[in-house]
Amino acid sequence: DKVLPELIEPYELRAAKLREFLEDVKPSLCYDIVPLADPFGPSVTDPDLQCLVVSEETRRGGEAVNRKRLENGLSELALHEIKLMKDPDHSQNEEEKISSSSLRQRLLGTLLHPPRQDPALPLRPYVIGLTGGTGSGKTSIARLLGHLGAFVIDADKLGHAVYEPGGPAYERVVAAFGAEVLNKDGTINRKVLGAKVFGHQERLKSLTDIVWPEIAQMVKERVREADAQGKAVCVLDAAVLLE
C-alpha cells in the first residue's frame, strides 16, 4: 500500500543503511534489525522488550501493541512519544512531516540510472513502454508525451486492426474459432470471441499465439515509421507489453 513502491529500495539495502546510521550515532548500543511481516512484528511476542518509541500519529498503534501483549500474557511496554520533524520545503500537496512518500514522489520525472545501452537496438528512435491497467492514466500520459514531440503508438488500436477483415490475424482467428464468432457483415464479434476464450487457458493461448506476434510486427512497422519521420522518442501505449 506504499506510495510508488517500485521506487523503494530493497529491504537488505535499506536495513544496511539503517544499521550504518545507527552505529554511527551510537556505536555502543546493540541493534537487532528485523523485517516486519505484519503490523506488529516482534513487539507482541518478544518478552524482553520494555519500551516502544511512537509518534503522535502512531500512539494508537502502540496502545494496540500493549493490548496484544496483555492477550499474550506479556507485560505492557512503556510508550515513549517523540515529535515528528517537519519538512520546511514541503509543497501544498505533500505531507507536512518529513516523509519518504513525498521524497519518492519528487523522484518522478528524474532519471534513476542511465539508460542501458543495447548494441542490438538502434539508438533512434528511443522506445519507451507505457503500461498499466484500465484507468491508470496511460492515455493521458501518452497524450502529454505526444504533445512534447514523441511518436505515440496505441497498441489497443493495433489490436483492433489485426481482427478486421483483411487484417493479418483475421483469417487465422476465424479458422481457429469458427464462423460463429462473425457478425453478419463478416467482422469478428469480439464479445463472442471473448466468451469463447476467457476462462479457458488453452483457447486463450491459442488466440494470443495468433494475435500477439501480429501486433508486435505492426508495432515494429510503426517504430520504423517514427524513424522515417525523424522522431527521437517513440512511446508504446500498451496494457500488456511484449518483451
From TrEMBL:
Keywords: ATP-binding, Nucleotide-binding. Gene3D superfamilies: HUPs, P-loop containing nucleotide triphosphate hydrolases. One of its GO terms (molecular function) is dephospho-CoA kinase activity. The keyword ATP-binding applies. InterPro entries: Depp_CoAkinase, P-loop_NTPase, Rossmann-like_a/b/a_fold. GO terms for biological process: coenzyme A biosynthetic process. The keyword Signal does not apply. Pfam families: CoaE. This is COASY synthase. The gene is Coasy.
